[in-house]
């Protein structure tokens, strides 16, 4: 329970910045909770470093972490992209870093936020395991899915659900099966 309270505090302290994240937290799955707690700490460390370096540019980069695998999604100039990736790689506990950069001037709009919410609503039923986690980011109508689902079938269903959402131009998936 202590881990859950600390994780929730960390998640509240880090700005959401136009993303929707669905995570399952179940006390009976202590190993999964511990992993999610570690991921929250990694995300907080990277986000904090980015914000300290340049708050304006940091707001255009979403940091995702699932079992030590970090995803940087958003838009930034080449110099900040390099800085963000290097910062993530140097953070304790990080296994891998994957970047997904959008062209300049494709920052998330109100329409993108509504699209994220619509996709997230479709994905809720797929996150059936305590260890399931899905994050959705939308920039310029382009959806990026990151996270972990129970099996390959759920990953395929998530892709189909996102692609069938009206207004989605393209879907890139970094989803993994447990």
Descriptive report:
This protein is α/β, with parallel strands linked by helices. The chain folds into two domains: 27-101, Histidine-containing Protein, Chain: A; 110-177, Histidine-containing Protein, Chain: A. 44% of the residues lie in helices and 25% in strands. The protein is built from six helices and seven strands; from the N terminus they run αβααββαβαββαβ. The strands form two sheets. It has a four-stranded mixed sheet, covered by helices on one side. It has a three-stranded mixed sheet with strand order 2-3-4. α2 (30-53) packs antiparallel against α4. The longest helix has 24 residues, at 30-53. It starts with a helix and ends with a strand. 36% of the residues are buried.
Specify the CATH class of the largest domain: Alpha Beta
Described by the principal axes of the CA atoms, the overall outline is globular
**Hey, roughly how much beta strand do the residues contain?**
25-35%
User: Could you name the CATH topology of the largest domain?
Assistant: Histidine-containing Protein, Chain: A
**Strand/helix succession:** HEHHEEHEHEEHE
């Amino acid at each position: 329970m202590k881990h859950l309270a600390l994780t929730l505090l960390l998640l509240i302290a880090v700005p959401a910045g136009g993303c929707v994240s669905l995570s399952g937290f179940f006390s009976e799955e202590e190993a999964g909770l511990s992993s999610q707690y570690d991921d929250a700490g990694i995300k907080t460390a990277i986000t904090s470093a980015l914000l300290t370096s340049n708050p304006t540019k940091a707001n255009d980069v979403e940091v995702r972490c699932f079992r030590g695998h970090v995803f940087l999604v958003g838009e930034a100039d080449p110099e900040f992209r390099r800085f963000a990736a290097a910062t993530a790689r140097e953070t304790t506990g990080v296994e891998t870093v994957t970047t997904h950069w959008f062209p300049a001037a494709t920052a998330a709009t109100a329409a993108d936020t509504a699209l994220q919410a619509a996709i997230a609503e479709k994905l809720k039923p797929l996150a059936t395991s305590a260890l399931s986690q899905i994050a959705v980011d939308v920039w310029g109508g382009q959806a990026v899915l990151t996270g972990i689902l129970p099996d390959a079938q759920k990953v395929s269903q998530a892709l189909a659900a996102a692609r069938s959402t009206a207004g989605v131009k393209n879907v890139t998936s970094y989803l993994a099966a447990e």
